[in-house]
Amino acid sequence: MAKLTFLSHSAWLIETNQYNIFIDPFLEGNPQAKIKPTDIKADFIIVTHAHGDHLGDAIPMAKASNALIIANNEIANYCIAKGAKAHNMHIGGTREFPFGKVKLTPAWHGSSFPDGSYGGMPTGCLVMLEGKTIYHTGDTGLFMDMQLIGEMNPVDVFLVSIGDNFTMGVDDAVKAVEFVKPKLTIPMHYNTFDVIKADANDFKNKVNAKGYNVKLVGIGESCQL
Ligand code: NI
Ligand code: MN
Description:
Blueprint: E1 3-8, E2 11-15, E3 20-23, E4 44-46, H1 52-55, H2 58-65, E5 68-72, H3 73-81, E6 85-89, E7 94-97, E8 100-106, E9 123-129, E10 132-136, H4 146-152, E11 157-161, H5 170-180, E12 184-188, H6 200-209, E13 222-224
Parallel strand pairs: 3-4, 4-5, 5-6, 10-11, 11-12
Antiparallel strand pairs: 1-2, 1-13, 2-3, 7-8, 8-9, 9-10
Helix pairs in contact: 4-5, 5-6
The structure holds nickel (II) ion and manganese (II) ion (MN).
């Protein structure tokens, strides 16, 4: 059974028997992260978009442990140019990796690198492993096609941004849950900085009122998939 650990912000670690898969490993410079980039060996690193709070430490982590970065074409090429291993894919595409499958989904957002260069279209991702499907929204506003994503890929765990300002806020994220219809929802991308303060209990209550399950996962806490 795989283990899913919240590293803070939009950063997650999925541990299978064989592999450590990070998503958006923003650790260095993250006021809430409890681990350092080199504390846990990475095998695969999925990057949803190029913003510093998502690309994070992906490149140094990948170089330190020979991990494979999985991202859109523009981000993968950037990482390869910086000396990391990367697999290029893009929105709508699915690819099988040793741990399972990744499909990149749309996201309504921006995606420039911290140095200003172009990161292509931002994404979310579906991670399918051991018979479970995780949907990480990345940074995005609410969009109707989430309904299609949920219909075509029954989602076990929905990792959804609720911090507002840069992404969906609480009420839009509640609507996203209604669109995706996941078995379990976990909010993310809130309270890391003042500008994305959000009331996770308010989110939980509103999602529960619609008949869906929510778990508030603290930083460093894990749940079994
Ligand atoms: Ni962003
Ligand atoms: Mn962000």
